[in-house]
Amino acid sequence: MRGPDLGFGRAGDCAGVTPLSTMSNACARTIPNAWEIAPMHDSKMPDASQLLRRKQFEANEKERRVVLLSTMIRDFDNMIVELDRHIAAEEDRTRIKDTGHLAYSTFATAAAKRRLNQLSTVAHTKSMLDVARRELHELRVQLRDLENNHSPLAPAGSTPDAISALR
After folding, report:
1. 3-state SS string for the chain
2. pTM, whole model, 2 decimals?
3. Which one of 18, 31, 40, 112 has the lowest number of neighbouring Cβ atoms within 10 Å?
């Protein structure tokens, strides 16, 4: 006994819901190809609002990077201060402050080496922060220029100079 027809069709019926492996060629041709769907914008060149949104996103990402790098530098500086305290405490405990002494603490030696590594990491991170700040400043200038050139009354393609200047 067959159940009621719910309108889903049979295995070979084009109107039905069937797996692709059981579809006939005629049915497969009726399925739209994803590449045939018309794009929202026919132009390959981004319009001013898209460019503005992209620059705003890039500026936000650079701001996050600047904040992250600043936080990292502050944390590294705190670690360096803490390592200095540990080294001083170990030298006070052992009463040997000469790093060339045979009985100098291996803990103090390792902490001093780690401190030097932290100092070089801070220097590298500060240079990355300077670059990120410079890039952020450039992005903000570009964004300000874009916002000044972008007029809601003008058509989207009316600012080709602004768009080509940002490339």
Report:
1. CCCCCCCCCCCCCCCCCCCHHHCCHHHHHHCCCHHHCCCCCCCCCCCHHHHHHHHHHHHHHHHHHHHHHHHHHHHHHHHHHHHHHHHHHHHHHHCCCCCCCCCCCHHHHHHHHHHHHHHHHHHHHHHHHHHHHHHHHHHHHHHHHHHHHCCCCCCHHHCHHHHHHHC
2. 0.59
3. 40
